[in-house]
Each structure stands twice: as C-alpha cells, then as structure tokens.
Amino acid sequence: MKTEQVDVLVIGAGPAGTVAASIIHQAGYKVKVVEKQKFPRFVIGESLLPRSMEALEEAGFIDAIKAKGFQQKFGAKFVKGDALCDFTFQEQYTPGWTWTWQVTRADFDKTLADTVESMGVPVSYETTVTGIRFNGSDSVTTVEDKDGHQSEIAARFIVDGSGYGRVIPKLFNLEKNSNLQPRKALFAHTVDTRRSMADEPNRITAVVHKPGVWIWIIPFATGVTSLGFVGDPEFFEQYPGTDEDKYRALLEAEPYTRERFRDVELVFEPRILQSWSATTDKFYGDGFVLTGNVTEFLDPIFSSGVTLACVSAQTAAKLVIRKLKGEAVDWEKEYMEPTMQGVNTFRSYVMAWYEGILDTIFFKKDADPVIKGQICSVLAGYVWDMSNPFVKNHDTALKRLARTIELTDKLKSSSAIE
Ligand code: FAD
C-alpha cells in the first residue's frame, strides 16, 4: 500500500481543519488535509461571531472571504412578541472585531479550503479516514478514496477537525454524552422577497416562538434567508404532513414570520437535524488534538459553533507547532482548559436561554448599558476575557441579574399599587 509522509495530517476541510492547516503550514511544516466530501458541500452554521475573525485573520483567510461579498453582520436581535432586544457589536465591552459575516457555508468553506490549497497545502477530497494506528505520537492513518482505493499517511501529529464525523473519538471510544437535552431543527433557505418588512439584513434575528422553541433568521447577501425552527423533538409532532407542511405551518403559526414568509419559495426542501450535542472526555492525546465540533458542540442559539471551531483550531495549531519544534506543551493547561472555558461560558448562556433566564434579561426595558455591553461581548464570541464579569462568573451572573430584575419589577409594581 502507498504510504505518504507528512508532518501534520488534518482530518476535515471545515473551518477548524483549514484554520489549523494554514497556521501550521505557515510555520514551515508539511501539512495535508483529507476531506470525506466533495466541495462545495452543504453544512449548517451560517452566522459567524466577531471573535472568529481573529482566527480567520491569523490563518490568512480574510481577503479571500471579503472578495466573496458575503453579508456583513453587525449584531444580533432577539424578539419575543412585541418585545425586542437589539445588540450591536459596536457596543461590546471587550476590545476587538465589531463585525463579521453571515455566509452560505458551502461557499464559505470552499473559499477557506481553496485558499489553504493555494498556499500550498494539498487537500484530498472524497477521501475518508477509516483507521489510525499510533506508535507513540507518530501515526499511520488509512484513508479510502471514492473508488475504494486505500492508502496510508504517516504523520508526526494529527489534527482532527472532522466535525460531526468525530473520527478520533469514534475510533478510540472517547465519546461522552452531552449534558444538554436533545433538540431538533427544521430549516430551509427561503427566497426572501419581503425582507424589508421586518429585518435589517445585517444581523441574525432569534425569535422566541414558545417556551423552549425559537426561530433563527439569517439573511444572506443574495436575497436568500436561512430560517430554522429549533425545539424539543416532540414539539414538531403536533404538526401533520411532510416536513414542508410542518415548516409552512410553523411559519404561519408565528406572527413575526407569518406575512413575510407566506408562500415563500424554498431553495431546498426543509431539512432536519437533531441530537447534535456531543462531547469527548479529553481533547488531546499522544500525537493528536481534537478541534472544532469534535471537542464539544452545544446548541445553535448563540451561533458559537464556527467561532469555537476557528478559535480551538487557532490555539491547537500554535501548540502543535511548539510540539513539532520539540518544546514541552502542557495540553491540559494550554488547550483543554481554555477550550472548556469558551465552551462552558456558552453552555451557561445556552442553559439560561432555554430556562427563560435570558428572556428576563434581554426583554427588560431600559437595560443598563454597561451590563448590556458585557453580555454583548459574549454574544460576539469574546468568551475568554476574564475582566468581563459575565464571562468570569458566567454560571452565576445571569441568574443573579435575572433575579434582581424580577425583584425590582415586583417592588415597582407593589409600590405602584400602594
Ligand atoms: P465541519 O464544518 O462539520 O467540517 C468537518 C469536515 O470533516 C466535513 O467537511 C466532513 O465531511 C469532514 N469529515 C468528517 N468525517 C471525515 C472522515 N472520516 N474523513 C475525512 N473527513 C471527514 N455555528 C455557527 O457558528 N453559527 C450558526 O449559525 C450555527 N447554526 C447551527 C445550526 C444547527 C441546527 C446546528 C446543528 C449547528 C449550527 N452551528 C452553527 C454549528 C456548526 O454547524 C458547527 O459548529 C461547525 O460547522 C463546526 O465546524 P468544524 O470545522 O468543526 O466541522
């Protein structure tokens, strides 16, 4: 069997894989990417966060993405009935990027993969990893092309960026159940001719439809808008018929979407994704590191997936370079802990969203601008800024703030009665 020799094998050409491949390649190492699918390919995850821009910049991707003319994104809007909460990233507490993009991932991911290839990193499409043998930190990976031909890649290090494929956790039984409840999404791309009725295209809108059920509205520069419903799997069962029947009934059931999306043309039939939350015990091992969705994916509500993918890949790539140089790396302290810091901050916000705690905070009139800026930084993906109390105390600060708002409202209404 043919064996190719590289310094670093990267599994998957999504954002995690390409960011890692580019940064390691720029340090002068021989990198190869293997990707199971043919690009462009569909993947969900269309709304980015400003923090991802720092990783995309270090990977040398910004100019190529800019040239594609994707929709710029300046904030996030939350809607519940008549109540509205609009965050613009300009208001955020942490210094950093104040904008990003809303992208069709097929085009976005192909742009990243083409750019990394043009830098000199070979990307083998329709090539699936089927097995890995480790000998210390060295490894030999077996891959299979679309015609069933097998070959081997010997590497000094592996970066697993295989997303929902979860190659290394599956091959080595590292999978762990998530502590989040299973949820389901029903979504499509719509030809949004009545967009001007409601939303500015330059932000994501999240609509609270019912407790625990929400809608994402992500406009693209092309006039197409991604729209998806997320909720408990049982919630969708009350709607009869095909997935398209359910989707159109849901659009009709929500006042915010009813008129704008009535009889809307769909770019593809509504699709379903469910039970996406997954995690792994350890994000590293002798000769490998897990990045992006392979580490842990929580929930789509705060559009954190691509940002966590890019940032984990950025952090991992720098550590891989040090390891290849023969320097000591404390993977637990330098990789696992910061990665979990980001994941756990978002976990607190995801839980607070589904528990209704964020409804109390987001839809309070006359919000304190300092607190709003601090929460805005989290929504921009700046979840490593420990000077932000809503990052540092992510597990308690939201609950405390919601409780204070509720008590103040109660006091106000009782003094109004007196
Ligand atoms: P991926 O983008 O999945 O790339 C992994 C690549 O690895 C794939 O191309 C795959 O083909 C390849 N691969 C898999 N197995 C193998 C193998 N055996 N051999 C070789 N290659 C392999 N995130 C956001 O940031 N914003 C959003 O608005 C958002 N919305 C979402 C909505 C829903 C309903 C869901 C479920 C997720 C959403 N996400 C969102 C999350 C987002 O989809 C992921 O976090 C993101 O795509 C992760 O990037 P990645 O590079 O880790 O993996």
CATH architecture of the largest domain: 3-Layer(bba) Sandwich
Count every helix, treating DSSP H or I runs of 4 or more residues as helices: 13
CATH class value of the largest domain = Alpha Beta
- Rg (C-alpha, Å): 22 Å
How can the largest sheet be summarized? 8 strands, mixed
Number of domains: 3
The CATH topology name of the largest domain reads FAD/NAD(P)-binding domain
What's the average pLDDT? 96
Task: Find the CATH superfamily of the largest domain.
Answer: FAD/NAD(P)-binding domain
Secondary-structure-derived class: alpha+beta
Strand runs, count: 21
Overall form: globular
As a percent range, the share of strand residues is 25-35%
Q: Helix fraction?
A: 25-40%
Oligomeric state, counting identical vs distinct chains:
single chain
- Separation, N- and C-terminal Cα atoms: 86 Å
Low-confidence stretches: none
Q: Which hetero compounds are present in the coordinates?
A: flavin-adenine dinucleotide
Domain FAD-binding: 6-330
Protein name: FAD-dependent oxidoreductase
Pfam families: FAD_binding_3 (PF01494)
Organism: Chitinophaga hostae
